[in-house]
Structures are given as C-alpha cells and as structure tokens.
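Data availability (excerpt). All sequences and predicted token strings are deposited with the supplementary files. A representative entry, Helix-turn-helix domain-containing protein, is shown inline so that the format can be inspected without opening the archive.
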Amino acid sequence: MSELVLTVDEAAERLRVSRWTLYNLIRSNQLRTVKIGRRRLVPVDALAEYLAQLTRVAA
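Structure token line:
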C-alpha cells in the first residue's frame, strides 16, 4: 500500500525544503494538512496540488 499521508519532516524532505519553510506553507494555507490526534500530517496528494499550483503560476 502506498503512503497516504506524510509527517511534516517527510513532506519537507520530499519538497527539499526545511521544516521551518514547510510550516510557513501550512500557516499561509498554501499546503493542505490534516490533524489526527495531536499529529499534523500532509496528504501525499496535497504535495502534488501545491506543486501543480506553483507550475500554473510560473507558466
């Protein structure tokens, strides 16, 4: 089964940005997350949405 969600650290690693930068993306509502208990998780498809948005802006 493929991963559905990533931890903040895993998502930052996949985007090749710092954890601080990832939290700024979350705070500015540029990156969608879910909260399960006390954990903040990033859906894998949210990374794809964010990158698609960046591509549209750059075009």
